[in-house]
Design goal:
Strand content: 35-45%
Distance between the termini: 51 Å
Number of strands: 32
Shape: globular
Structural class: mainly beta
Length: about 625
């Protein structure tokens, strides 16, 4: 397989991660439910048991990843990045990769078991008042592997080679339990609901509950999602670093990107970066509630107004546990100084095998590793409040209509698991990452409709004759959606020079531009953001609340007709128009302050798509 070559500023060459794989995942599930009705009570109880199998062979980087960033060709100060400093292709021509890795991967045969039971009582206290009371318990076992190829990171256990605290331990080996993590069995989730008809045409409804989200731990289909140990990743190491930061060692080249060889599995990963679960495992929990009033405006029309809220606690995020504390920013240029390496002569491979290392590396916790990431660390927090209006008209005549409008705000302090839009600003201080959420849309309107055209047999006009047979039975349907844009993250190089601390821009003022000044070439005020000075913490936030991507505006429509052919056969014709008016759906603006396209929108999608279909039913 060809390796992956990634020069910054241009398109990469070669297959992306985990491109070759064999994957077999399946559940086996059993359920039982019981309903008992007695007097004013309707009692329900049930039980669910599921076995999840995860069998996968999916190598991360079997031919290697080689990155060529701007760092080795930027100047005049190699430690400072800017929009005009360095070029990835120039670094490629130089021949020395700025980063990358090579992986040796196992084939996993993993499984989990999920168990849940519930009991619920629908209690009709009065003809106009009903209470819903319930309790649910659920438990998902830790991951196990048939061949004991999983590991966890133990921060208190000595690493065998260095004797320093903090190491990978192997599940099911050396007397360790087979499970990758400790069980979390205390997930009791009460639920409550109320429906009160306090007026002939008006009903008050309210509800709330606790909802656990055990899931699978958010894994995809890759071995890496279950951690290091039997998957060994060797980072690019070109040799002992020179005194100047962001400078390749003398003679460094792609011909020899792993100076001290490849790490062989199974391994504690000492001297490299590792990412896996810690032994303590906590399930995320959501507290959700809503209060709404429903009013019948007519026999076929309903109006609803609702307050909706939720609070998320212990949300999972993959978090660095070796990020250097920002208190060391006061050291300034000393962070990049080369100092004696206490692991020289002990760790045989990678950066930590050199006689000298940068001071910032030794300030890390667990500094016998270049980095430690805790998978699915239960530290996240979110809060959501919204007001929603909904209008529903049932098809008593020829029109069915459903319209809804929501105004709300979602705030959190961790990024969405698979979004890739943002990252933690400072893993040691999640308050610095608290911001408008990645996918927050403060306004959202959607309407769906079905309208039967008023001519043909049984309709208002043209009920008889040959013309009725041709133009009758047609209907128009569609979905129209309007939504505000999502917040934009403004990124910059991490000039703190602290390993593990993220890179965001300095915000000098609001970057918002009024609509009459906003263009695709200048979507926001780019002068409002700057690259942070060296050895300083950025003043911007994880997302910018008043700088948003373009909103969404779509019109999906269809025209259809059903033609009866005798009593038992019908033929349906459909013409479907997705984005019927060809409204451009513009992408997000370029949000890196070092990009020459900073603030510009360079992509769009959602072009009109028309398709026709025939369906014969008999």
């Amino acid at each position: 397989m060809f390796p992956r070559i990634e020069p910054s500023d241009v398109v990469a060459l070669g297959p992306n991660r985990a491109s070759y794989f064999t994957d077999s995942e399946y559940p086996i599930e059993g359920q039982a439910h019981l309903t008992w009705i007695r007097s004013a009570h309707s009692l329900k109880a049930g039980f669910v048991r599921t076995f999840h199998a995860f069998n996968v062979t999916r190598a991360e980087r079997p031919s290697g990843l080689y990155s060529f960033g701007r760092a080795f060709t930027q100047g005049p100060n190699p430690a400072s990045a800017s929009a005009t400093a360095g070029f990835g292709v120039a670094t490629l021509v130089l021949g020395a990769p700025t980063g990358g890795q090579f992986s040796l991967d196992p084939s996993l045969a993993c499984s989990q078991k999920y168990t849940a039971w519930y009991v619920q009582d629908d209690w009709k206290l009065l003809p106009s008042l009903t209470l819903n009371l319930g309790l649910r318990w659920e438990y998902q076992t830790p991951w196990t592997d048939r061949f004991n190829q999983l590991a966890w990171f133990d921060p208190d256990y000595p690493e065998p080679l260095t004797k320093a605290k903090g190491t990978l331990r192997f599940a099911g080996r050396d007397g360790n339990p087979r499970e990758q993590t400790d069980p979390d069995r205390n997930n009791f989730a009460p639920r409550f609901g109320l429906a009160w008809r306090f007026h002939e045409r008006t009903v008050l409804r309210a509800g709330g509950g606790v909802f656990y989200t055990p899931g699978s731990g958010g894994i995809g289909a890759g071995v890496s999602d279950l951690g290091s140990g039997f998957m060994a990743q060797t980072p690019v190491y070109l040799g002992p670093p020179p005194a100047a930061p962001n400078t390749p060692p003398e003679g460094a080249s792609l011909a020899d990107p792993f100076k001290t060889g490849l790490i062989q599995p199974p391994t504690t990963g000492v001297g490299a970066g590792v990412g896996t679960a810690f032994r303590e495992w906590v399930t995320p929990v959501m507290y959700q509630w809503n209060v709404n009033i429903q009013r019948m405006l007519a026999s076929d029309t309903l109006l609803e107004a609702a307050w909706i809220g939720s609070r998320g606690l212990r949300l999972w995020v993959n978090r660095s546990r070796t990020a250097v504390s920002t208190q060391y920013l006061s050291l300034g240029p000393r962070l990049d100084e080369l100092v004696d390496n206490p692991w020289y002569g002990i760790i045989p491979t990678g950066t930590l095998s050199a006689q000298k290392v940068r001071l910032s590396q030794l300030l890390q916790p667990f500094n016998h590793y270049t980095g430690v990431s805790r998978f699915r660390d239960a530290v996240g927090d979110s809060v959501y409040h919204a007001f929603a209006l909904r209008l529903e008209k049932r098809a008593t005549r020829s029109l069915t209509l459903h319209a809804s409008y929501t105004v709300g705000k979602l705030i959190d302090n961790v990024q969405e698991r698979f979004s890739g839009r943002t990252s933690l600003v400072d893993p040691n201080n999640l308050r610095a990452s608290r911001s408008i959420a990645d996918f927050d849309r403060p306004h959202y309107f959607a309407v769906s409709y079905i309208y039967e055209l008023p001519w043909g047999r049984g309709k208002r006009w043209l009920q008889h004759g040959p013309l009725a047979a041709v133009v009758g039975n047609w209907q128009i349907s569609g979905i129209t959606t309007f939504g505000a844009g999502m917040p934009v993250p403004i990124t910059a190089p991490s000039n703190t020079r602290l390993p593990g601390v993220g890179g965001y821009a300095d915000r000098l003022r609001s970057g918002y531009l009024p609509a009459d000044r906003r263009t695709l070439n200048r979507w926001f005020d780019t002068a409002a953001f700057a690259t942070p000075a060296l050895y300083t913490f950025p003043t911007g936030s994880r997302t910018e609340p008043d700088v948003r991507t373009p909103g969404i505006k779509t019109f999906d429509m269809s025209l259809s007709r059903i033609q009866r052919i005798g009593e038992r056969v019908s033929l349906q014709f459909r013409a479907e128009f997705f984005n019927a008016f060809n409204t451009p759906q513009f992408g997000a603006p370029t949000s890196s302050v070092t990009s020459v396209d900073f603030g510009r929108i360079l992509s769009a999608g959602g072009e009109r798509n028309i398709q026709f279909g025939l369906r014969l039913a008999f």
